[in-house]
Amino acid sequence: MTATPQSLDMLQIAAAAADAKGGEDLIALDVSEPLPLVDIFLLVTGRSERNVAAIADEIEEKLLEAGHKRLRREGRQESRWVLLDFGDLVAHVFHEQERVFYGLERLWKDCPVVPIQLPARAAAED
Q: Looking at residue 36, what is its pLDDT?
């Protein structure tokens, strides 16, 4: 089993949203083999609780605008690890300390990495 075209589209929307709000270390994992109800995990790091919340809010907003239904959201109040479940795509937005501590990359290391295409950013001004 592999990620569906719809889940790949959702990934690109979520990744662009995360990137726009300063999300770092974006990694997408194809978890469709071990988890039949989910195709992709998107892992993102934020630098502070405020940044984590902004990233999560932007991902949620952009996926909702694209017509995808959110099934569940957890962790928004503390903003240390926000989980956004959109069915085929689950986004995990971590504060850097939580990302290291929970190590989802290690837990899911046997799952293939899905390439992420981020929009080109404008050249930095001097």
A: 85
